[in-house]
Design a protein that fits this description.
74% of the residues lie in helices and 0% in strands. By secondary structure, it is mainly α. The chain folds into two domains: 157 residues, Tetracycline Repressor, domain 2 (Orthogonal Bundle); 138 residues, Up-down Bundle (Four Helix Bundle (Hemerythrin (Met), subunit A)), CATH 1.20.120. Helix 2 runs parallel beside helix 14. It starts with 15 loop residues before the first helix and ends in a 9-residue tail after the last helix. The mean pLDDT is 92.
């Protein structure tokens, strides 16, 4: 964990941009998108103002988790090329300031969700923050190569939070959406870690390629990808999604599988071009799945199989 004394803010006063960067906006955008999919895919009608409030709380909680992660991992971020330009390693914000910022946003997002949306969504939101900060960042990340497998649960929960915000409960469909993101997370991040393995080794983070080697990591990517493809199609098979979703899940899933096989066969350890491609395709895959859910809900496209 970072020692606050090690990171002294520079002479430049922290800007709004510095604090916005603490929120990990690229990660936040995916969380917002999958949370929105959960809201619009849920049965029934939700007041637009409540839907907006729920989505705002999901976004703020994701940003708060990012700020807390940066505060606790500032020592790691400083020695990794990918993260060295973040606000804390650059000396623009201190870990203490990031902690205060993150915890205030965390409490506020959960409180607003509980007061203005519903308790189920608020409890799920609080659990997501706890899991990402307490379980993943503080416990798993520096201790086990399974860090991203278990810790991925926090990033998988936004569709369930969105669904709960709209309905006040959970069912098989949102749990399935969570399972898809949970299964998607390891191949997505392991693809990144393959070409960033030197970074993780220098920082002492036990990512899979560092601890078990690149060949083992490639096999794991292939196995998780094989499990992911049918799981991605499953919502259409149980009536939780329609033909557009089925087409997207099938086509992009096939592309994902092809790229996962390419990673498995990769021999260029230095540059990892196949891992680069899989990382990009994994983002397209996630966008295509949840975009199709949103389009079907907005266009009122009927699911292939009626709900039982």
């Amino acid at each position: 964990m970072a020692n606050a004394a090690t990171f002294q803010a520079g002479s430049r006063v922290a800007t709004v941009g510095d604090y916005f960067a603490l929120l990990k906006p690229r990660v936040m955008s995916l969380v917002i998108f999958t949370g929105l999919a959960g809201i619009v895919a849920a049965p029934g009608h939700i007041n637009p103002l409540i839907a907006f409030t729920a989505l705002l709380c999901i976004a703020v909680a994701a940003g708060a988790s990012g700020a807390l992660n940066m505060a606790y991992d500032a020592d790691i971020d400083r020695v990794m090329a990918r993260t060295a330009t973040r606000p804390i390693p650059m000396g623009h914000v201190t870990p203490g300031e990031a902690l205060g910022f993150g915890w205030v946003l965390s409490v506020a997002s959960v409180a607003v969700m509980g007061l203005f949306v519903n308790l189920v969504a608020a409890v799920l939101l609080a659990f997501t923050i706890f899991f990402y900060v307490g379980v993943y960042t503080l416990w798993l990340k520096r201790r086990t190569p399974q860090n991203i497998v278990i810790g991925g649960l926090s990033g998988a929960l936004p569709p369930a939070i969105g669904w709960a915000a709209a309905t006040g409960d959970l069912s098989l469909a949102p749990i399935l959406f969570v399972a898809i993101i949970f299964m998607w997370t390891p191949p997505h991040f392991w693809a990144l870690s393959l070409w960033r393995s030197d970074d993780y080794a220098r920082a002492g983070v036990p990512m899979m390629p560092v601890v078990r080697g690149k060949a083992f990591t490639r096999r794991q990517i292939l196995l998780y990808s094989i499990a992911l493809i049918p799981l991605g199609i499953a919502p259409a098979l149980i009536g939780a999604a329609g033909p557009l979703y089925l087409a997207a899940a099938s086509l992009i899933g096939a592309w994902f599988a092809v790229e996962a096989v390419a990673v498995y066969r990769e021999t260029n350890d230095a540059k990892e071009p196949a891992a680069h491609r899989l990382f990009r395709v994994s983002l397209i895959y996630m966008f295509a799945l949840f975009a199709s859910l949103i389009v079907e809900a907005v266009a009122h496209i009927s699911p292939l199989v009626p709900w039982l």
